[in-house]
């Protein structure tokens, strides 16, 4: 009996056209595509290494580096010592020159039964703290946005590597044969650009499908080049057959790598064909109730755009997409800290809380891991009179659902928030922990390339067991 790969090697275009003809027949018969990925394809759902706590991930990425000491890492000593010199040495390498200590312009207060401290920037998220684990001792290795973004997304700040979402797609596949396993909404096209959501040397089918780009208007959200109304489905099939013939010719004497790329190409054509029916429906928010739209802040106010992003993420996750990233820019306040952080938090606070509440009431939060954070934090010392510099030496992320503890805080930065101090969590540890929650052993999820086995965590990474529920 032939498996799918062997059959592709033997028949190439014939198989692809047969698959597409079958899909076309189903569409013509008004049948809904299966919600389970079929066996054999590179995106087929795969069995994890062990029992997972989470089935899917929603990554709320705050591009630019939100200030941990102005959001979720309360530092009363910073308030007391405002305007005074930092009483210990600053890092040897700094992105820019900073002066004395600068207190937070915002007040902090405790929320929920857990009593978590949250600043006035995030009152709506504050209402959800009893569903959240805060990690306040994350540290990285790069002071520049480009390197820090690549480190956070791919595990490397110096080489081209597959992104975290691509690794998860490779390791687990998709739960819906008509949708990608990895979607990124409004990603930045700077600071590493497409490498932050690319597949590098993994099969190309695992790279992200992009919806919009930085600060796109989500009222008109769409996946580019998904449909072509001037070309019928019948003509599309003939085009696929032609491409399959060209692929078959290219296979003669080709390497295993080329064959893998060709297999992924055929799979991408098949997936794109299926997505024409499935994806537009998920982008249509008119099906949601007024109460749901209001929960996300989709009302024409500053929350509208990010609210739409978060709601699309929920809909995609609910439909079976394994990893959805929802980006927001641009939290890089070297000056105008008070004005800009206030503006940016007002855009995302209610939508994020709405997402958490919506997932919880739908029973999805238990097996959906929601993660929030940026590429680094900010310095407790002032840049100018009203700004903070980049700080990769200590910053805060939080997680909710997906098997993490509720109403919990792990790790500490020093009394001013400059360095991770207790129970330090490196970026590699963060990645190892996310994979573990999905049932993946980060040391076993490898891919052979260039003479060695690569993994997301390189040769490092320890799972933070203390945050597990």
Kindly describe this structure.
With 469 residues, the chain is of the alpha/beta class. It has one domain: Alkaline Phosphatase, subunit A, CATH 3.40.720. Helix content is 33%, strand content 16%. Strands 1, 4, 5, 6, 7, 8, 11, 12 and 15 form a nine-stranded mixed beta sheet that branches. Strands 2-3 form a two-stranded antiparallel ribbon. A two-stranded antiparallel ribbon has the order 9-10. Helix 2 (13-28) packs antiparallel against helix 7. The radius of gyration is 23 Å and the shape is globular. It starts with a helix and ends in a 15-residue tail after the last strand.
Could you say which overall geometry the principal axes of the C-alpha atoms support? globular
**How many domains would you count in the coordinates?**
1
The whole-number mean of residue pLDDT values reads 88
Which fold name fills CATH's third level, the topology?
Answer: Alkaline Phosphatase, subunit A
CATH architecture: 3-Layer(aba) Sandwich
- Helix and strand content put the structural class at alpha/beta
List the helices and strands and how they pair.
Blueprint: H1 4-11, H2 13-28, E1 56-63, H3 76-80, E2 108-111, E3 116-119, H4 123-126, E4 132-139, H5 145-154, H6 164-172, E5 182-185, E6 209-211, H7 233-251, H8 256-283, H9 290-295, H10 304-319, E7 323-329, H11 337-361, E8 368-373, E9 377-382, E10 388-391, E11 395-400, E12 408-410, E13 412-413, E14 420-422, E15 425-426, H12 427-437, E16 447-449, E17 452-454
Parallel strand pairs: 1-7, 1-8, 4-12, 4-15, 5-6, 5-7
Antiparallel strand pairs: 2-3, 4-11, 8-11, 9-10, 13-14, 16-17
């Amino acid at each position: 009996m032939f498996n799918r790969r062997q059959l592709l090697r033997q028949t190439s275009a014939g198989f692809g056209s047969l698959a597409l003809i079958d899909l076309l027949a189903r569409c013509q018969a008004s049948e809904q595509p299966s919600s389970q990925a079929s066996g054999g394809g590179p995106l087929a759902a795969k069995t994890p290494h062990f029992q997972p706590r989470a089935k899917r991930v929603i990554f709320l990425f705050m591009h630019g580096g939100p200030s941990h000491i102005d959001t979720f890492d309360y530092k009363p000593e910073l308030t007391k010592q405002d305007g005074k010199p930092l009483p210990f040495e600053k890092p040897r390498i700094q992105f820019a020159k900073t002066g004395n200590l600068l207190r937070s312009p915002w007040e902090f207060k405790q929320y929920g039964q857990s009593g978590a401290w949250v600043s006035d920037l995030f009152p709506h998220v504050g209402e959800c703290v009893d569903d959240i684990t805060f990690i306040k001792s994350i540290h990285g290795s790069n002071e520049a946005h480009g390197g820090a973004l690549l480190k956070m997304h791919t595990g490397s700040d110096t080489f081209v590597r597959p992104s975290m979402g691509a690794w998860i797609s490779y390791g687990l596949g998709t739960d819906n044969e008509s949708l990608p396993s990895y979607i990124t909404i409004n990603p930045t096209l700077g600071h590493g650009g497409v490498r932050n959501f690319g597949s590098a040397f993994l099969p190309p089918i695992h790279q992200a499908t992009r919806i919009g780009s930085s600060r796109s208007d989500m009222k008109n959200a769409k996946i580019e080049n998904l449909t072509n109304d001037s070309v019928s489905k019948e003509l599309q099939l003939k085009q696929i057959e032609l491409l399959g013939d060209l692929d078959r010719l290219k296979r003669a004497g080709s390497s295993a790598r080329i064959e893998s790329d060709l297999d992924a190409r055929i799979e991408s054509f098949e997936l794109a064909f299926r997505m024409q029916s499935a994806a537009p429906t998920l982008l249509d928010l008119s099906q949601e109730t007024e109460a749901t739209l209001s929960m996300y802040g989709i009302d024409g106010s500053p929350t509208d755009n990010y609210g739409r992003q978060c709601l699309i993420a929920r809909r995609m996750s609910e439909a079976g997409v394994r990893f959805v990233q929802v980006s927001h820019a641009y939290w890089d306040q070297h000056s105008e800290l008070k004005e800009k952080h206030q503006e940016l938090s007002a855009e995302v606070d209610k939508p994020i809380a709405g997402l958490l509440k919506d997932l919880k009431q739908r029973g999805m939060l238990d097996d959906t891991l929601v993660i929030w954070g940026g590429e680094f934090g900010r310095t407790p010392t002032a840049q100018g009179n009203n700004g903070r510099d980049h700080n990769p030496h200590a910053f805060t992320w939080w997680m909710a659902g997906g098997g993490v503890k509720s109403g919990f805080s792990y790790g500490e930065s020093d009394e001013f928030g400059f360095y991770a101090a207790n129970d330090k969590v490196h970026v590699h540890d963060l990645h190892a922990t996310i994979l573990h929650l999905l049932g993946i052993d980060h040391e076993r999820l490898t891919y052979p390339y260039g003479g060695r086995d690569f993994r997301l965590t390189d040769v490092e990474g320890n799972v933070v067991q203390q945050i597990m529920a």
